[in-house]
Design brief:
Pfam families: WD40. Belongs to the WD repeat peroxin-7 family. Its main location: cytoplasm. The chain has helices spanning 3-8, 292-295; strands at 18-20, 23-27, 43-51, 54-63, 89-94, 103-107, 111-115, 122-127, 133-138, 145-150, 155-159, 164-169, 176-181, 188-193, 197-202, 211-214, 220-225, 232-237, 242-246, 253-257, 264-269, 277-281, 285-289. It has 298 residues and is mainly beta. The strands form six sheets. The chain has a five-stranded antiparallel β-sheet with strand order 1-2-23-22-21, with no helix packed on it. Strands 5-6-7-8 form a four-stranded antiparallel β-sheet, with no helix packed on it. The chain is globular and about 45 Å long.
Length: 298
């Protein structure tokens, strides 16, 4: 969305930013009483700006209903609202390959929908999952290819050209809450599940995982590959921790960060800095920091 849209509405004074060393912490305000009080996800959406002086809150929005995920468009399109899913939308992702301007969304209605922002309706609905879809993410390498992870314990690979599933991986014996593609290997994905494990999958042979990472003590909520290091990834969990791994090492756990007091539910690695990480938790804070393991030579 164009920056002017954030400036048009009267802003609510943002919460204070705490800076401790290389760490930034944003406390998130409690919203007004939501329409669905038992549904998690209500809170504040923060737009952050990074410049020579550091990080600042550019705008903040109080959300009165469940907000689960957000993503950016590089185009200054008008705001669009699509209402086709019949239950909560849990995941959304923009295509990453050149020549495509597509969005996929995954829902509790067990479907994935394909969208083009220039069209006022979905282009296609993908069916096959038998439970809630928690994660949908485009391949950074293969045009028209995306992955989805579900409570039906499967990882699925889809092709928009055939509108059908290409590969079904029975990846865990528990709900899969997150998946991500390796930025350096088009055939490698990782899944994180309620069984506390991370598993790597080579799409050329999915009979067995190529690696398994153990250490979390509760469900893994989000997993992300590093955009700078081929074998490094990060995961966050309901055990309040963020863990950093190098699956190519005999002892893969690089570091455990425990700076939240509630479930850690969001995680991302900077595309600009190889050492910077952001995470968030149910303790109403966002933390941006440089973990020691990413500041040291590999």
């Amino acid at each position: 969305c164009p920056k002017s849209q954030f400036l048009q509405s009267a802003p609510t004074p943002p919460p204070p930013v705490t800076h401790i060393g290389a760490r930034y912490t944003w406390p998130c305000r409690k919203p007004a009483k939501p329409e669905w009080p038992l549904l998690p996800g209500c809170g504040t959406l923060l737009i952050l700006d990074h410049n020579e002086s550091g990080l600042r809150i550019f705008r903040s929005f109080d959300w009165t209903d469940a907000l689960f995920d957000v993503t950016w468009s590089e185009n200054n399109e008008h705001v669009l609202v699509y209402k086709e899913h019949t239950q909560e939308v849990y995941s959304v992702d923009w295509s990453q390959t050149r020549g495509e301007q597509l969005v996929v969304s995954g829902s509790w209605d067990q479907t994935v929908k394909l969208w083009d922002p220039t069209v006022g309706r979905s282009l296609c609905t993908f069916k096959g999952h038998e439970s809630i879809i928690y994660s949908t993410i485009w391949s950074p390498h293969i045009p028209g290819c995306f992955a989805s992870a579900s409570g039906d314990q499967t990882l699925r690979i889809w092709d928009v050209k055939t509108t059908g599933v290409r590969i079904v991986v029975p990846a865990h014996q528990a709900e899969i809450l997150s998946c991500d593609w390796c930025k350096y290997n088009e055939n490698l994905l990782v899944t994180g599940a309620v069984d506390c494990s991370l598993r790597g999958w080579d799409l050329r042979n999915v009979r067995q995982p190529v690696f398994e990472l153990l250490g979390h003590t509760y469900a893994i909520r989000r997993v992300k590959f590093s955009p700078f290091y081929a074998s490094v990834l990060a995961s966050c969990s309901y055990d309040f921790t963020v863990r950093f791994w190098n699956f190519s090492k005999p002892n893969p756990l690089l570091e455990t960060v425990e700076h939240h007091t509630e479930f850690t539910c969001g995680l991302d690695l900077s595309l600009q800095s190889p050492t910077q990480v952001a995470d968030c938790a149910w303790d109403e804070t966002i933390k941006i920091y440089d973990p020691v393991c990413l500041t040291m030579p590999a």
